[in-house]
Amino acid sequence: MAKFQYVKELQHDAFQPPDVNVNEFDPEAIFISGCPFWQETLFYSKKEGIRPWEKDSDKACRKLAKQMTAILGTMEARLRVREKPEPYLVRDALGIFLSVLFWSNQKPVSLIHLKESLNELDIKPLNIEERLFYCLEKGNTFSGFRQLNELLLEQRKLIAKKGV
Q1: YpoC-like domain: which residues (predicted)?
Q2: Phi, psi at residue 130, to the nearest 5°?
C-alpha cells in the first residue's frame, strides 16, 4: 500500500496529505475527493497523467466547476447552521479553485512558490494573491467561503470572456 504524499511542487500548509492509498486512484480522474491535484501529482512525480491543462482545459474546468457547486452547497449548509465544514471539503474546494485557475491558463498547479506562480498567470481575478491567501487561511469560515465562491465565479467569467 503506497501512502499519498504531495510532491514538493504541491506542498502547502493548507493541503496536508490525506491518509489514503494511491493505488486505489484512477489515473484518468481529474478530481478525487479529499486529494486535490491528482493529475499534477502524476505529472510532477512520474511525468504521467492526462494533463487536463494541456488537453481541452475548458472541458476539464467545466467538470471541476460542477464538482465545486456541490461542495460549496454542502459547505454553505454547514456554515448557515454555524458549524464549520469538514476539513476535506475545504481542501477540495480550495484545490478545485486552484486547478481551475491554473488549468484555464494552460498550466499545472504549482504551490511551491505560489506568489510567483500567480504572477505568471494571464487569466486571473483582480487582487488574486490577497484574496486567495485569505481563503487558504480562513477557508472554513463564512467570509472565507464567500470569497472563494466569488473567486470561482470571477474566474469562470474570465474564462468565458477569453474563450479558453
Answers
A1: 62-162
A2: -60, -45
